[in-house]
Amino acid sequence: MRKKFFFVLVQVVIVISAMGFLTVVHADESAPLAFVEGVLYDFGTVLEGNDVLHDFVIKNKGDADLEIVKVKSG
Length: 74
Known about the structure:
two-stranded antiparallel ribbon, alpha+beta, 1 helix
């Protein structure tokens, strides 16, 4: 279950990062700006059956509310 959660979380981070790069902001418009520090994390060698955990922190550096409305695993 944790492995599935981890993969979903990584995909969320990638999608949010991509949204930040693709968003065009005009000077007179407020918009959210997702910022993720350290979008990649190397767990090293993990033996099968062992759980791994890492927190990715998503910050809103924009001037409007950031909403995550849909998460889809691949």
